[in-house]
Specification:
Jelly Rolls, alpha+beta, five-stranded mixed barrel, six-stranded antiparallel sheet, 11 helices
């Protein structure tokens, strides 16, 4: 079985931690492991898995690769299908099926997994996947229905036909959109409804055949895109860069609407696996361990007479006095305070920030690149201060700037610097000056991280003032 992990969406209800450049899969919970890493660990824990496929936005590649490297102690291989922009889950899954059909047997079973869900019972999860395989071998596409524990209005539902068992699962009467509270209570009481988990299992060929029947145009356009896309082996991975222009022709539609709700070839396996789609701060609160006052805490905090709160800190201590039922989330450049039971409305804030084009909807102060990270420490109209962390044996692509002056101070490690035709080395507490239009390159040729403070100044300091100069075998994907 090949796990296919789908990672898309902005996670707008989990702002300010989740942003366009750092979406929900990268959120870390109390164990210090991100949702994406948790999904990878589940995939790795399945029997006979030797390869994993990740479909994600090309801008997230480096972060995804680093997170995989952190937890991959099994020498597994990972393939990346990189989208130039999101087109929903149906094109992503179609692309994965077509891509794998050209590399492996069309009878290969796939497990489609969202990258941003939480599952706490891995033994029950493995059993559910095992139970699904008997249906998969009969050319069914299997979805996993979560046995509901309470009347949830934030999930879609599946009405299962429990009078009609199929192997280890059941046929499906219908799919139901997110209900109001009264309907959700009725669904819970009837014991005929399951939460729709958004996970699917099936043979490559079965998925392709169902796409041919119910979404042939989407399948054809996605196939044409793949045929005309660039594939390479880099960073110990096989990478497919989907064609930017042709991917636009693939319909922007979910797998539920494109296929699952139309097909007569869908079965469901009911399961109780400790599942949550982590769709809001309330769901994160519910998933975390609590203190004696029912507070869920991530990071450092001091609480006095505070109960039933989520206190989430990424960078500094939070003090709370005489508070109840609040969500408090602190990041270096934004703070969220919300009524815990109305945390779905955080999306309204995210949308307003997007309309304002405020940088906090899209970026954190720390940004990820192939060579490491840079963090914006402070900026004004005519200056910007950054901290660069360059990974061992990595380099920042040769470049020049038209307007910016740059002062570099090495605070840790050893830097190899090329400026025009001159190459020299700097150690900790040493510095250099890069003039406008000077061609320069920064390298870390050691086994340890290199940390540099960069001070940029000038009449224009925008990050688009850059001219990358790639030499032979150098690229920035």
């Amino acid at each position: 079985m090949i796990p296919v992990i789908i990672s898309g969406g902005s996670g707008s209800r989990l702002w300010p931690v989740s942003r366009l450049s750092y979406p929900k899969p990268f959120i870390k919970l109390s164990d210090g492991i991100s949702l994406f890493q948790n999904t990878l660990i589940r995939a790795i824990g399945l029997p006979n898995v030797t390869r994993i496929v990740v479909v994600t936005n090309e801008s997230l590649f480096y972060r995804m690769k680093d997170e995989f490297t952190e937890i991959n102690h099994y020498n597994l291989q990972i393939d990346f299908i990189l989208e130039p922009y999101g087109r929903n889950t149906a094109p992503a899954i179609a692309a994965a099926c077509l891509y794998l059909s050209k590399l492996y047997s069309k009878n290969e079973p796939l497990l489609i997994m969202p990258a941003d869900h939480l599952i706490t019972d891995s033994i029950a999860f493995n059993k559910a996947v095992h139970d699904a395989q008997s249906l998969v071998n009969k050319n069914f596409i299997v979805t996993f229905g979560i046995t509901p524990q309470y009347p949830e209005i934030g999930y879609g539902y599946i009405e299962a036909d429990f009078s009609n068992p199929i192997e280890s699962g059941y046929s499906i009467k219908r799919f139901v959109e997110k209900p109001n509270l009264e309907k959700a209570q009725q669904y819970l009481s009837s014991k005929s409804y399951l939460w729709n988990s958004g996970m699917f299992c099936g043979l490559v060929n079965t998925f392709i055949d169902e796409f041919k029947l119910y979404s042939p145009d989407l399948l054809n356009s996605t196939n044409n895109c793949i045929i005309n896309s660039k594939q390479e082996n880099a960073f110990d991975s096989r990478i497919l860069h989907l064609n930017r222009e042709l991917f636009l022709h693939s319909e922007d539609i979910s797998i539920d609407y494109a296929l699952i709700e139309k097909s007569n070839n869908i079965g469901v396996v009911p399961c109780s696996i400790g599942w949550s789609d982590i769709g809001s701060w309330l769901s994160i609160f519910q998933s975390l361990p609590k203190d004696d006052s029912n507070n869920a805490i991530i990071g450092e905090s001091i609480l006095h007479n505070t109960k039933d709160c989520l206190v989430y800190s990424t960078d500094r201590i939070i003090a709370c006095v005489d508070l109840n039922d609040l969500i408090i989330v602190d990041t270096p450049d934004a703070i969220l305070i919300a009524d815990k039971h109305k945390s779905q409305n955080v999306k309204i804030i995210f949308d307003k920030l997007k309309q304002m084009k405020h940088h906090t909807y899209s970026q954190h102060q720390t940004n990820f690149r192939s060579w490491g990270t840079y963090t914006i420490i402070e900026e004004g109209s005519f200056y910007k201060i950054k901290k660069l962390e360059i990974k061992p044996h990595s380099f920042v692509l040769m470049q020049s700037h038209h307007y910016k002056n740059e002062h570099w101070v090495v605070v840790e490690g050893s830097a190899k610097i090329t400026t025009n035709d001159k190459t020299y080395y700097l150690l900790a507490n040493e510095s250099t000056y890069i003039r406008p239009n000077a061609v320069h390159k920064l390298e870390n040729n050691t086994d340890k991280n290199l940390i540099i403070i960069k001070i940029q100044s000038g009449e224009y300091i925008g990050d688009d003032d850059i001219n990358k100069i790639a030499t032979f075998n150098e690229r920035d994907i």
